Amino acid sequence: MYELLKQEGRAKRGILHTVHGDIQTPVFMNVGTVAAIKGAVSTEDLEQIKCQVELSNTYHLHVRTGDKLIREVGGLHKFMSWNRPILTDSGGFQVFSLAGLRRIKEEGVYFHSHIDGAKIFMGPEESMQIQSNLGSTIAMAFDECAPALADRSYVEASVARTTRWLERCKTKMQQLNAEEGTVNCHQMLFGINQGAIYSDIRIDHAKRIAELDLDGYAVGGLAVGETHEEMYHILDETVPYLPLHKPTYLMGVGTPANILEGVERGVDFFDCVYPTRNGRHGHVYTNQGKINLFNQKYEKDMRPIEEGCGCPTCRRYSRAYVRHLLKAKEMLGMRLCVLHNLYFYNTMMEEIRDAIDEGRFHSYKEEKLYGMGQINREKEKQNG
């Protein structure tokens, strides 16, 4: 159950009550594709860096290790020793982006595994069964993530099929939750709004899926080729038609600036690989903007990545030392950068929640963007 605590404009402050604990929103979900955060980050680390929700990937866990094995050992929470909420995506995005040759039919998608080429079929019922085997807190509906710039006729047909698939997901989820021996009989289902960059298709789809009274709603198919301005426009147009008293999830987004803009437009949940991917390449986030620790100017810099940061890295290590580790290709360098970046994101979400609680989100957003250099850059772009 989602409890809406406060609003400032369209920004929402809430709590999603789940069987694995409460999720304070807005929240950034830390992406652990194969039940692990890339960069040698442990479950214990996640607890220390304020992670509320871990996100795992249905497709990847299905083709490697296997969801049936994970069910046999007690589900994903027990497998990875994590007792807080987990969201699993449906596998749909990976099927359409990774799997290469594929055939989309009404029943589902036929494709080949990107690992060994094995033939695989996945449809709504199969995705729900895999996620039920994993026992995640929140399961995502199986959908087609159509290219953002696809032509209108393709998008209309795709969205209509995604709606039919969502209805099948809901039916299958209810059946699985009622079965004896289900890993998590309280598994929640989030539906996904699609429609590329066509506002009218997005709005019609939002109205239709809102009628299904799901546990939450995601906006998918963004940050896949359109501009930031187009993404913000779609959120402006679409989010008002999703249920206010259910969580709204913007999938695969994004930068700190994207998150601040999304919160302002009523989004509760975010996820993105940026903090981990950038960290593994020595790019770290600070309140003064992103810095590249490979730059020579940090060679003798004995300050922490950010003064006053409470992350495990900044409490003990210097920029110079972390740079040395990265240059020496020591795994510890990547790990320390990823820990810092995830802590930065999780702390920013904490600050956002406090700001909405205190009715000062708009000023917080402006100060944050200014500090990171985002507002100046936008003005420079506008001035040509």
TrEMBL record:
The record, for Pfam families, names:
TGT (PF01702)
Entry GO MF terms = metal ion binding; tRNA-guanosine(34) queuine transglycosylase activity
- One example of a Gene Ontology biological process annotation: tRNA queuosine(34) biosynthetic process
User: Which UniProt key words apply to this protein?
Assistant: Glycosyltransferase, Metal-binding, Queuosine biosynthesis, Transferase, tRNA processing, Zinc
- Cofactor(s) it depends on: Zn(2+)
Question: So which domain of life are we looking at?
Answer: Bacteria
Active-site feature positions: D89 (proton acceptor), D271 (nucleophile)
> Which ranges of the sequence are coiled-coil?
none
Query: What's in the GO CC field?
Result: cytosol
Protein purpose: Catalyzes the base-exchange of a guanine (G) residue with the queuine precursor 7-aminomethyl-7-deazaguanine (PreQ1) at position 34 (anticodon wobble position) in tRNAs with GU(N) anticodons (tRNA-Asp, -Asn, -His and -Tyr). Catalysis occurs through a double-displacement mechanism. The nucleophile active site attacks the C1' of nucleotide 34 to detach the guanine base from the RNA, forming a covalent enzyme-RNA intermediate. The proton acceptor active site deprotonates the incoming PreQ1, allowing a nucleophilic attack on the C1' of the ribose to form the product.
Return the PANTHER family for the record: QUEUINE TRNA-RIBOSYLTRANSFERASE
Give the protein name, as stated in the record. Answer: Queuine tRNA-ribosyltransferase
* Protein's organism: Roseburia intestinalis L1-82
